[in-house]
Design brief:
Protein name: AB hydrolase-1 domain-containing protein
Number of strands: 2
Helix content: 40-55%
Shape: flat
Organism: Mucilaginibacter gynuensis
Strand order of the largest sheet: 1-2
Radius of gyration: 16 Å
Order of helices and strands: HHHEHEH
Pfam family, one: Abhydrolase_1
Largest sheet: 2 strands, parallel
Low-confidence stretches: none
Number of domains: 1
Domain AB hydrolase-1: 36-99
């Protein structure tokens, strides 16, 4: 179980006491992981393909993202010629919602 010690974003979320989303069930979590794993396929040229993208790209990453490690955002930002990477130190997977 996650607690709010050391995570200001989580502490802010816990202040909301009405109209909260339902807790994610094990069944739903497993379905999500199964769907993601079914979609994800290894593609060795992915980072090289990103070098062809010329438009500006903003990458928001939470430092405490359990689902996607921060190294992935760093690698993507290095491969995009016009990328800006912002890492939020007190955020997880939904950093852009936690730090709107």
């Amino acid at each position: 179980m996650i607690n709010d010690s050391g995570c200001p974003a989580y502490a802010r979320i816990q202040k909301r006491t009405v109209n909260r989303d339902a807790v994610l069930s094990q069944e739903t979590g497993l379905a999500e992981v199964t769907a993601v794993l079914g979609w994800v396929q290894p593609y060795p040229e992915a980072l090289n393909d990103l070098k062809k993208v010329n438009q500006p790209v903003f990458i928001a990453q939470g430092e405490n993202d359990i689902s996607i490690q921060i190294i992935n955002a760093a690698n993507i930002s290095k491969s995009l010629p016009n990328a800006t990477l912002v890492v939020y130190p007190d955020a997880g997977h939904s950093s852009f919602f936690q730090n709107h």
